[in-house]
Amino acid sequence: GVSDATTGTALMDISGAYAFAAPPERVWDLLLDPAVIASCLPGCDAFEPDGEDRYRVRLTLALTAITGTYDGSVSISERMAPTSYRLTAEGQGRPGSVAGSAAIVLRADAVGTIVDVSATVETRGTIARMGQRLIGGVSQMMMDRFFACLRSKV
What we know:
Strand order of the largest sheet: 1-2-8-7-6-5-4-3
Radius of gyration: 15 Å
Largest sheet: 8 strands, antiparallel
Distance between the termini: 34 Å
Order of helices and strands: EEHHEEEEEEHH
Shape: globular
Helix content: 25-40%
Oligomer: single chain
Number of strands: 8
């Protein structure tokens, strides 16, 4: 991660690989189902369509210095069903703003599907000053929780 004290931004990379006992097509459908996303996204209060492959999101987080309600948007691009897409998100709350972009790749394996996630998260404001270890940890935890929830729906 890189931190720039003058502009108050912090950048970090997070990644993960998540195994599902289901074919890629099934996992793909779950990953792109707004109702499933809303039910699995930690702190999600709203996840509503806002145009083609775009959603309005509201999250309420209760985590130390980043506690608050965030309003933002999520968009999906570079869609190549059922193997990959790019997810771009941005949100704004009292503690600052968060923007991120993730490459999501699905690959079949012997027991089902592996989902590889490679994301970059940028924070500004108070959040950025909280330190990358904290933000990286929170981002990773939220991602792990999301995929654990998704796995339960296969």
